[in-house]
Write a structure and sequence with these properties.
By secondary structure, this protein is mainly α. It is 52% helix and 9% strand. The chain has 8 helices and 5 strands; from the N terminus they run H-E-E-H-H-H-E-H-H-E-E-H-H. The strands form 2 sheets. It has a 3-stranded antiparallel beta sheet with strand order 3-5-4. The protein has a two-stranded antiparallel ribbon with strand order 1-2. Helix 3 crosses helix 5 (91-104).
Length: 205
């Protein structure tokens, strides 16, 4: 239902992975996941959360269906949990942040319509759709997330947050190169990964 309401065409030959492909894919992820009570979760050894981050890099073929809504969700959460769920956030401010994220992540997903500062109409249409799906509510120019759609909202957020975190960590680490100019190119990805893992363990990602 959530897919068809968003215009996604779901067929047997629509390019989505079948049961055999899913089993094979899960087999390849043996080193990163564990199965508990029919749920797959990242494997954690001691205090090593590297698998959480590794799994965040994998892309679901359905991401594009929810991508624009995910940008809105992450924009709302950037104002804090209380504002997102209780107090509400100015729709105008959400629009500005969503356009910023849309531009930042424009190379991450191939989609037909994008949020831009010159196309407020499309943004308003998506917000109206989310309201019709009982995901958000708007009143007096403010938007609040609805608990009735919490599961789907958090799923949407999980689509975009790893991308935002990656851009943030790379930028943060790049700023340290102003004082450290002897970093080898070959070590750059490893050093960025180390910083990301450290921030994750500290609860900052």
């Amino acid at each position: 239902m959530a897919l068809t309401r968003r215009g996604a065409v779901v067929t047997n030959d629509g390019g989505l992975p079948n049961e055999s492909t899913l089993k094979l894919g899960l087999k390849h992820l043996d080193d990163y996941i564990v199965k508990k009570r029919n749920f797959y979760m990242p494997k954690v050894v001691g205090n090593d959360y590297q698998n959480y981050m590794m799994l965040g890099y994998y892309r679901n073929p359905l991401n594009f269906v929810f991508f624009n809504e995910a940008l809105i969700v992450c924009s709302v959460f950037s104002f804090g949990n209380d504002a997102a769920w209780k107090d509400g956030v100015s729709v105008d401010e959400i629009f500005k942040k969503t356009c910023y994220l849309s531009e930042l992540l424009k190379r991450e997903e191939v989609i037909k319509n994008r949020f831009t500062p010159t196309n407020r109409t499309y943004f308003d249409q998506v917000v109206e759709f989310m309201e019709s799906q009982r995901l958000v509510t708007t009143k007096d120019g403010n938007l609040t997330l609805k608990s009735t759609g919490e599961g789907l909202l958090l799923m949407m957020g999980s689509i975009v947050w790893p991308m935002i975190d990656t851009y943030y960590v790379v930028l943060l680490y790049t700023m340290t190169l102003v004082k450290q100019k002897n970093i080898l190119d070959a070590n750059f990805p490893k050093d960025v990964q180390w910083m990301a893992e450290t921030l994750f363990i500290e609860g900052k990602l």
